[in-house]
Q: What sequence folds into this?
């Protein structure tokens, strides 16, 4: 009996530490710049932001797979791009109301916990690129969502696997206030990369047209060690331009095309 209790105590102390090591230390990001936008859904006809599309991006070997987080009226963090699901406002509806409507492949609308756990499983190389959507209700609610997302990622020991992106600069600033070491990228192309550097934001993740309008921002970012990402890049000619310009990440609905192109361009 005493031996059993000791074993249980030992296991309860050591196992979480082992889990942390497995999830963080063995992770090596893929050596390509391709981030699947809402997972790799298009070629296989999967729903966007589904666990199936996330797993498809991991199977492809993308460096990242992006997804969108919102919060229901009863504070459940769920994965969905639009503010409404089946004409229900996510912010004004309860989790049970929202999840009565499955995705087109039969999946339940995933919670963030379910999505992160599915994304961490047997995934040696794909970052989980977490877009926190601004709240339609208030700035304060958006920042509360950010804090809850961070707490969950911490609980699951996935800090080194998650990249945070947002159009709301205050959400990123809140994240950096709570966890200055995490990786954030800003989506709204209205700030010079030098300002991102000053604020501790590690990446510019702007619409690709922003870099055409501000060609000097590419070199400014590179000089300031700000990672360069562009969305949503679906044309081959745009991919070629960005890959040849040395972009760190390219977010696309066409990850297979981008990976094929990368194989040609890198050699
Ligand atoms: Mg998104």
A:
């Amino acid at each position: 009996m005493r031996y059993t209790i000791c074993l249980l105590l030992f296991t309860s102390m050591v196992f979480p530490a082992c889990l942390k090591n497995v999830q963080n230390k063995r992770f090596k990001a893929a050596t390509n710049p391709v981030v699947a936008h809402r997972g790799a859904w298009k070629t296989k006809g999967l729903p966007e932001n589904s666990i199936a599309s996330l797993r498809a991006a991991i199977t492809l070997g993308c460096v990242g797979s992006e997804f969108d987080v919102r919060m229901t009226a009863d504070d459940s963090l769920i994965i969905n791009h639009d503010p409404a699901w089946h004409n229900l406002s996510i912010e004004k509806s309860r989790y049970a109301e929202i999840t009565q409507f499955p995705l087109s492949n039969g999946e339940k609308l995933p919670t963030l916990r379910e999505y992160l756990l599915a994304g961490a499983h047997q995934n040696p190389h794909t970052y989980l690129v977490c877009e926190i959507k601004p709240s339609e209700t208030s700035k304060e609610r958006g920042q509360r969502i950010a804090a809850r997302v961070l707490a969950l990622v911490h609980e699951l020991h996935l800090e080194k696997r998650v990249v945070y992106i947002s159009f709301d600069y205050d959400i990123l600033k809140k994240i950096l206030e709570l966890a200055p070491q995490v990786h954030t990228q800003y989506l709204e192309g209205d700030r010079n990369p030098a300002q991102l550097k000053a604020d501790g934001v590690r990446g510019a993740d702007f619409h690709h047209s922003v870099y055409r309008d501000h060609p000097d921002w590419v070199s400014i970012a590179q000089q300031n060690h700000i990672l360069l990402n562009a969305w949503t890049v679906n044309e081959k000619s745009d991919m070629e331009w960005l890959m040849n310009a040395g972009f760190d990440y390219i977010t696309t609905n066409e990850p297979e095309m981008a990976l094929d192109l990368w194989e040609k361009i890198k050699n």
Q: What stands out?
A: Residues 1 and 7 are 10 Å apart (CA to CA). The two ends are 62 Å apart (CA to CA). Residues 66, 68, 131 surround magnesium ion (CB under 6 Å).
